[in-house]
């Protein structure tokens, strides 16, 4: 790429239409990783939608910097002696953006909607005998057996459980909620949204922060700015120019070629705030041939070189990525070496071709969804597409915008009816820190997330994990899960990315983790 040369040639002077240089001191202008195409978090796992939801909605529990759940909308909870009944009490004076109070029945309806589609939510729902609101402030969970994962399930940040008014939460998960009313520190401004270009949020004056220092999604969520604007800028050179000139304040995912230029600018910080990073992958749709056959998926492992994907996405600086990565986040208690020879042994395209033939691949067309307006995924897709062609896959490489990809991913239809076979993706590293959070390893078929892998063996190991009290036994089971994953291949791990953000030095108070807009002050 030559974007750096374009930038040096004077792209910084090419001001974008509609941007005002003399912006107010209390406005943050942000360039997201991609356009916000879908608003309803329950209908997508897209991180753009998740980042949007974190502004608008609050959660019953937050997560701290050690990835531990902490009370957020709840003042606290009580657990019965047998561990089967949890009573959660809401904090005082919580209010939605439409002015109505947050009541326990709103939370119950929100949980019920979320739990129908979220994999951990489904697990929780299957164990429930009762979920009720005995009063306006109290939620009661009565389980068939002890369920100590409740705070974790309600605090997780990928597949989060957004609390909304019951009139909206009553919507079936298959129907999109388009009215964005939460109780978070910012409210969505629908009249100023321009699809493909701009999303606007305003400080919610009625927000009641809890006490305590902010840490990730826990603690006090105080908005110090009046307004946040998201500006979608697909061209990297234009985004970099806008950041240098001060037209925007924050670029979520600068491309590797431009990081040295931005790092050298006296008014710009370039820093990794999400220390857990993002785990990259090639995700298969296991409903459609040829990837309905585990042997076909396994055959592709022998030719994958993770560093190829990481250098394409993150550049040559190894401080920004790691290879030789399995299914769990490196450096965390459940990371292990089980089955890693599948990715670290000598690479052989000829072996892949031979194994594909032995697995029964007969040249079926393979539809790959590629978001060309999402730089990181586009870069990884180019590497994957080249690899698949070299090993003889009959590839239909479909270049699309990210919003269309997200819509297509929901389809379980066959290829001739708009279905799909695979795409490159990345997920927050935090969800790969433990088996209960790791939705992309789950083997629950059509009840799971897109790709819909099915593995009774993985689910049996997960059940055993829930019953294991001691860490050594849990770690043993996690190793067994990874060994099984290299047999089932729900996806192919392609590395760990540590994506830096670039932002003006006029911003302070940025928290570690995902892009969060509370606690940030602008000079």
Give start-end ranges of low-pLDDT stretches.
1-23
CATH superfamily of the largest domain: Dipeptide-binding Protein, Domain 3
Q: Oligomeric status of the shown chains?
A: single chain
Total number of β-strand segments?
A: 21
**Span of the ends, CA to CA:** 35 Å
Helix share, percent:
25-40%
Give a written overview of the molecule.
This protein has 523 residues and is of the alpha+beta class. The chain folds into three domains: 24-37 and 180-275 and 500-522, Periplasmic binding protein-like II (D-Maltodextrin-Binding Protein, domain 2), CATH 3.40.190.10; 60-169, Dipeptide-binding Protein, Domain 1 (Dipeptide-binding Protein, domain 1); 278-497, Dipeptide-binding Protein, Domain 3 (Dipeptide-binding Protein, domain 3). 28% of the residues lie in helices and 19% in strands. The chain has helices at residues 3-8, 47-56, 104-115, 119-127, 150-155, 166-169, 236-245, 259-263, 294-299, 306-314, 341-344, 349-359, 375-390, 402-409, 456-466, 471-488; strands at 27-31, 61-63, 69-71, 74-79, 85-90, 128-132, 138-143, 186-188, 198-203, 227-231, 250-251, 268-271, 278-284, 321-322, 365-371, 394-400, 422-428, 491-497, 501-504, 507-508, 521-522. A seven-stranded mixed β-sheet has the order 8-9-10-1-11-19-12. β6 (128-132) and β7 form a beta hairpin.
């Amino acid at each position: 790429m030559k974007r750096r040369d374009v930038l040096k040639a004077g792209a910084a002077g090419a001001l974008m239409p509609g941007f005002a240089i003399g912006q107010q001191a209390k406005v943050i202008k942000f360039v997201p990783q991609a356009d916000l195409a879908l608003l309803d978090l329950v209908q997508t796992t897209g991180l753009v939608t998740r980042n949007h939801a974190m502004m608008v909605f609050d959660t019953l529990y937050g997560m701290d910097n050690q990835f531990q759940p902490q009370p957020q909308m709840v003042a606290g909870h009580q657990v019965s002696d047998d561990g089967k009944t949890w009573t959660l009490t809401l904090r005082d004076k919580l209010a939605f953006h439409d002015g109505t109070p947050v009541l326990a029945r709103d939370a119950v309806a929100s949980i019920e909607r979320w739990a129908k589609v979220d994999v951990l939510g489904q697990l929780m729902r299957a164990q429930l005998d009762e979920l009720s609101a005995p009063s306006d402030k109290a939620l009661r969970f009565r389980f068939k057996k002890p369920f100590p994962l409740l705070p974790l399930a309600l605090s997780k940040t990928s597949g989060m459980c957004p609390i909304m008014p019951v009139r909206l939460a009553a919507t079936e998960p298959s129907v999109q909620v388009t009215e964005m009313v939460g109780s978070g520190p910012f409210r969505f401004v629908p009249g100023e949204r321009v699809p493909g270009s701009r999303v606007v949020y305003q400080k919610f004056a009625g927000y009641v922060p809890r006490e305590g220092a902010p840490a990730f999604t826990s603690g006090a969520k105080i908005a110090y700015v009046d307004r946040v604007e998201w500006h979608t800028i697909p061209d990297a050179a234009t985004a970099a120019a806008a950041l240098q000139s001060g037209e925007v304040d924050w670029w979520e995912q600068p491309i590797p070629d431009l990081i040295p230029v931005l790092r050298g600018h006296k008014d710009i910080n370039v820093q990794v705030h999400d220390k857990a990073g993002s785990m990259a992958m090639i995700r298969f749709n296991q409903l459609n041939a040829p990837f309905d056959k585990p042997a076909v998926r396994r055959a592709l492992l022998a030719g994958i070189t993770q560093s190829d994907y990481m250098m394409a996405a993150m550049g040559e600086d190894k401080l920004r990525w790691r290879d030789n990565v399995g299914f769990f986040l490196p450096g965390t208690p459940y990371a292990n070496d089980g089955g890693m020879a599948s990715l670290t042994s000598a690479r052989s395209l000829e072996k892949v071709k031979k194994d594909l033939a032995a697995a029964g691949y007969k040249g079926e067309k393979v539809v790959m969804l590629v978001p060309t307006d999402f730089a990181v995924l586009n870069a990884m897709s180019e590497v994957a597409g080249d690899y698949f062609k070299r090993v003889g896959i009959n590839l239909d490489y479909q270049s699309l915008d990210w919003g269309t990809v997200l819509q297509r991913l929901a389809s379980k239809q066959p290829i001739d009816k708009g279905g799909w076979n695979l795409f490159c993706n990345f997920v927050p590293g935090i969800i790969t820190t433990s088996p209960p959070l790791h939705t992309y390893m789950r083997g629950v078929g059509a009840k799971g997330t897109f790709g819909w892998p099915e593995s009774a063996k993985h689910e049996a190991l997960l059940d055993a994990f829930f019953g294991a009290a001691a860490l050594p036994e849990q770690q043993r089971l996690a190793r067994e899960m990874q060994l099984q994953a290299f047999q089932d291949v729900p996806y192919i791990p392609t590395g760990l990315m540590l994506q830096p953000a670039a932002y003006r030095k006029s911003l302070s108070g940025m928290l570690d983790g995902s892009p969060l807009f509370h606690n940030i002050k602008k000079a």
